[in-house]
Amino acid sequence: MASPGSGFWSFGSEDGSGDPENPGTARAWCQVAQKFTGGIGNKLCALLYGDAERPAESGGSQTPRAAARKAACACVQKPCSCSKADVNYAFLHATDLLPACDGERPTLAFLQDVMNILLQYVVKSFDRSTKVIDFHYPNELLQEYNWELADQPQNLEEILMHCQTTLKYAIKTGHPRYFNQLSTGLDMVGLAADWLTSTANTNMFTYEIAPVFVLLEYVTLKKMREIIGWPGGSGDGIFSPGGAISNMYAMMIARFKMFPEVKEKGMAAVPRLIAFTSEHSHFSLKKGAAALGIGTDSVILIKCDERGKMIPSDLERRILEAKQKGFVPFLVSATAGTTVYGAFDPLLAVADICKKYKIWMHVDAAWGGGLLMSRKHKWKLSGVERANSVTWNPHKMMGVPLQCSALLVREEGLMQNCNQMHASYLFQQDKHYDLSYDTGDKALQCGRHVDVFKLWLMWRAKGTTGFEAHVDKCLELAEYLYNIIKNREGYEMVFDGKPQHTNVCFWYIPPSLRTLEDNEERMSRLSKVAPVIKARMMEYGTTMVSYQPLGDKVNFFRMVISNPAATHQDIDFLIEEIERLGQDL
């Protein structure tokens, strides 16, 4: 594939011009925003630069219906001729918007009001005085609103109300005190990129309908392969709908590499295949095996040490056992950043074993791949450059809006040969441009969402050093939490030692359990503590953190940090909130 070159598309350093934190630039930006967006520009600048009232929580003096009905503009001079003049949503429907005749004015007014709703939600997401969640039980939400679909259209006033209602009950995943999942935070450049992607509304299968996006995918995947350590960024890759699909791609390609006839003849034409992964690995490996006809029984779970890392000697033992039974080991999936413990398998040792027995080595770095951006922490993935394939989810540790998952493959052309079907209505061979940019035939999907632009635009805005600072900050916050609770009364660590990732796993021990002997009764009572505290967190709406059992360990909290908005004060708040909500248990 011919390189699109450097310059605009590349990830070089920027001069910082256009920085919205610069007062002069900010004023210029506001002027442009006001010129091209009317009232929304005034409101956006006020929200960003402190001239607006704080966004009110639900239950304010003006109802959403009244606000929608007025649809008033923010023009200084009256009468005006802006898009909001004389727009009454109560009498308008979707058929009055573009491409309707004379639909431009109501379309601009409607979209500006949608944008107002979105921007207020964005600002409130970072406001620590607002709730992370306005929790209602499913039956309550079903009874409180009519969610059913009808034959007749609703007016645009009602449509705006649905937008407000939906966000009212949405989880503020960008809130600095939301720690529930591996994917947290809300990046403003990534959000803007997502809006642009939806506006473009195209598909990633050919260059002719997604020229810029296809080039950006080429450039970005090449950069990611360079960071992994493959010479010159050589190889292949694709953005897929999440890490589970990326892992399944790896399993599929590994099988094809060993037995290419499986593509036409199916599993009946190949011997019993065996994959190996750690007992702490992601469940998607078994799901992939089930989907590909390999079978979950053909996924062998390798023992881990007390920190959750795969034990290489057990891996080799199980490979030899499989071979003695006449089975064919075809894939080892090592994990760089396990979901619960945040453990990194010993990739160098795993690579040696894979080389010895000629087995495809995959690294599931969906959670841990972001550490490759950090000079301080990338050593934890030493050996990843020896992998045949790598899953890396920028929507996790790097804070790119969902979804953004990449599969990187070291051997170029293998993915294409594995998946292509030569659909002549899409991939004509006599097109007038370089056909190597028609990437759709190497994907399982036909329709494929544009996921690359969010990552590319954020990378341009932050630079590699910006992602590095993001990663380093989050790991520092995790160490801060660990140092506070490791010797604090009422806390027990699930495993000893400083965490390798931002996962901090611990039990909170209420006062009533602190003097009990470590027996079955204590474990039974302790298992109920984390679920009750989590339920209370959600009902109060103050914070969210995950819990789970693992193996013989009863329910414990798994704290993860990937949101750069979080601070030491938010970590302190979490500890105090756990103690407040759990002291009476």
Automatic annotation (TrEMBL):
<comment type="subunit">
    <text>Homodimer.</text>
</comment>
<dbReference type="InterPro" id="IPR015424">
    <property type="entry name" value="PyrdxlP-dep_Trfase"/>
</dbReference>
<dbReference type="InterPro" id="IPR015421">
    <property type="entry name" value="PyrdxlP-dep_Trfase_major"/>
</dbReference>
<dbReference type="InterPro" id="IPR002129">
    <property type="entry name" value="PyrdxlP-dep_de-COase"/>
</dbReference>
<dbReference type="GO" id="GO:0030170">
    <property type="term" value="F:pyridoxal phosphate binding"/>
</dbReference>
<dbReference type="Pfam" id="PF00282">
    <property type="entry name" value="Pyridoxal_deC"/>
</dbReference>
<keyword id="KW-0210">Decarboxylase</keyword>
<keyword id="KW-0449">Lipoprotein</keyword>
<keyword id="KW-0564">Palmitate</keyword>
<keyword id="KW-1003">Cell membrane</keyword>
<dbReference type="GO" id="GO:0005829">
    <property type="term" value="C:cytosol"/>
</dbReference>
<keyword id="KW-0530">Neurotransmitter biosynthesis</keyword>
<keyword id="KW-0456">Lyase</keyword>
<protein>
    <recommendedName>
        <fullName>Glutamate decarboxylase 2</fullName>
        <ecNumber>4.1.1.15</ecNumber>
    </recommendedName>
</protein>
<feature type="region of interest" description="Disordered">
    <location>
        <begin position="1"/>
        <end position="25"/>
    </location>
</feature>
<dbReference type="GO" id="GO:0042734">
    <property type="term" value="C:presynaptic membrane"/>
</dbReference>
<keyword id="KW-0663">Pyridoxal phosphate</keyword>
<dbReference type="GO" id="GO:0009449">
    <property type="term" value="P:gamma-aminobutyric acid biosynthetic process"/>
</dbReference>
<keyword id="KW-0968">Cytoplasmic vesicle</keyword>
<keyword id="KW-0597">Phosphoprotein</keyword>
<keyword id="KW-0472">Membrane</keyword>
<comment type="similarity">
    <text>Belongs to the group II decarboxylase family.</text>
</comment>
<dbReference type="GO" id="GO:0004351">
    <property type="term" value="F:glutamate decarboxylase activity"/>
</dbReference>
<dbReference type="GO" id="GO:0006540">
    <property type="term" value="P:gamma-aminobutyrate shunt"/>
</dbReference>
<keyword id="KW-0963">Cytoplasm</keyword>
<comment type="function">
    <text>Catalyzes the production of GABA.</text>
</comment>
<dbReference type="GO" id="GO:0031410">
    <property type="term" value="C:cytoplasmic vesicle"/>
</dbReference>
<dbReference type="InterPro" id="IPR021115">
    <property type="entry name" value="Pyridoxal-P_BS"/>
</dbReference>
<feature type="modified residue" description="N6-(pyridoxal phosphate)lysine">
    <location>
        <position position="396"/>
    </location>
</feature>
<keyword id="KW-0770">Synapse</keyword>
<keyword id="KW-0966">Cell projection</keyword>
<keyword id="KW-0333">Golgi apparatus</keyword>
<dbReference type="GO" id="GO:0000139">
    <property type="term" value="C:Golgi membrane"/>
</dbReference>
<dbReference type="GO" id="GO:0030424">
    <property type="term" value="C:axon"/>
</dbReference>
